[in-house]
Amino acid sequence: MYDAAVLIGRLQPLHQGHLALLHEALARADRAIVVLGSAHQARTPKNPFTWQERAQMLRDALPQAERARLIVLPMRDFYDEPRWAQAIRQAVAQNTPAQAHIALVGHFKDDTSGYLRAFPGWDLIRMPRQGAIDATPIRDAYFGATPTTLDTALAPLAQYLPAATRSWLQQFAHTAHYPALQEEWRVLRQYRASWAGAPYPPVFVTVDALLRCQGQVLLIRRGHAPGKGLWALPGGFVEPNDTLWQSCLRELAEETHCPLPEARLRAALRGQQVFDHPQRSQRGRVITQAYFIDLSDDTLPPVRGGDDAAHAEWVPQDRLTGMEDQFHDDHWHILDQFLGLLARPLPP
Prior knowledge:
Elements: E1 2-9, H1 16-28, E2 29-36, H2 51-60, H3 64-67, E3 70-74, H4 81-93, E4 102-106, E5 123-126, H5 135-143, H6 150-154, H7 163-172, H8 177-193, E6 203-213, E7 216-222, E8 231-232, E9 235-237, H9 244-256, H10 262-267, E10 269-275, E11 285-294, E12 309-316, H11 331-339
Parallel strand pairs: 1-2, 1-4, 2-3, 4-5, 6-11
Antiparallel strand pairs: 6-7, 6-9, 7-8, 7-12, 10-11
InterPro entries: Cyt_trans-like, NUDIX_hydrolase-like_dom_sf, NUDIX_hydrolase_dom, Rossmann-like_a/b/a_fold
GO molecular function: nucleotidyltransferase activity
Keywords: Nucleotidyltransferase, Transferase
């Protein structure tokens, strides 16, 4: 018997495959620890439910006696596997006795299951895949329906959905979040369909500008889906005849009307970094080059939204930590990388 058995997943939403892994964890250990990924993110068609909502789905699907043996740990996507794995280790250690005997429960379904190898020292309990279902077709059926057609849309998948999850999905379809997520879902499907005939999936290149001045950071509100209404760094796709730097300057001017000349921005350039995690964008494979420009104590340049930006604003840096769930894609983590918004996990 293990002290704890760990299950890592996004559970967007909880289905019978997840539940089978959870029952195995509870059968093999005193406690089951479910690490809920993609916590603290904005709602998107891929991550439509908050970690608190998913935790409730889990508890609703378990008998009362087993709920007391369940620990739910929210975990953000760091887009950095070593950092993410160490953060999980620290969180589990804080919820288990010293020298605890720990197991990791999971199954290798595809390339996204490689994280199961990131925890040497934990026994791996391999489970066979529970049927051919995963959460993606459930979300597609869900967002392709309406509140009145939901039962019919989910009927072919009913065997894969715990009763508590199905009830929860029906209730959520009557909230304001549902139509907003449907709009995002449709835009992303159309976006992917536009290049579906390409011989290979395309790789997109973008740029982002992180401007800081007087302790404030320049942000935009996105005007269109995907990410409509969310905060983001000024940026966009690289034009065919532009260098990365030229594209950065162009996007900055178009989206914020920042009046500073190129020479001043180049003199204030303090760093640049490529962000290329395969899952950083729902649009597909998007690699971005981010530029950190620190204007120090210069006069705060006037800005206003333009082009794809509904709004542009200087936001105090000390507010950013509490805004994590309001950002598009991984832009909050880009800010964290340059500005150190989060304390780093302790080394193993």
